[in-house]
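Homework help board

Subject: predicted structure for assignment chain

Our instructor gave us this sequence and asked us to write out the predicted structure in token form, then describe one feature. I got the tokens but I'm not sure how to describe them. Can anyone check?
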Amino acid sequence: MTPASWPCPLPAGGFVDEHALSFDRNRKTRLLIVPALFDEGNKLRRLTVETMRRLDSAGIDCILPDLPGCNESLQQLDRQVPTAWRSAMDAAAKQFRATHVLGIRGGCMFTPDGLPTWHYAPVKAASILRQMLRARILASREAGREESREDLAKRAREQGIELAGYPLSPEFWREFEPTIATDTARLIEQAEIGGSGLWLRAEPGEDPDQADALAAILTWGATE
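My token output:
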């Protein structure tokens, strides 16, 4: 596994280098992975990388780019909008000459068009935001403050909001909230992987059996 960089387009024009993890041996089959979003991305990072290791052993190149404003990106999250994330993943697919795409959870909403695609346990943007609001309300309650989901959502749409350490602009919220993944991808349900989704755990974890199962599905599909 090696770090890589790629030119990510900026909304106002120009490019900035973004980070990616890659198993790149210039092989014929090349899988771009759009990661899960926000805290789910942290909880699924180990599973994602371990799946990439198995795909590398199966002869498949894998690239895991950062979404602008996330992970190792030097861009500011509160300046991002979903259209910029879509453009970024389109650019990454072209830069790394992807032949296939995998979206994980919220990342399924940002998979590039025109390539054979899998969506692993896709989730709607509204569901992600509800979970983040719920966590904010519980944390506030423990600190002796009462907040309502309706008031927080209204503030987010009008002024922006910070949830679980992620600052989201009002433009991001308004565009992101109605977003759903396309239904043209091959769906990978959690039942096919086995066990419960790692995003449900309180802390980041790993499961070698799930990584084996996910890699097997992708290997079979990419080489058939």
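Reply (TA_rk): Your tokens look well-formed. For the description, you could write something like this. The mean pLDDT is 94. That's the kind of observation they're looking for.
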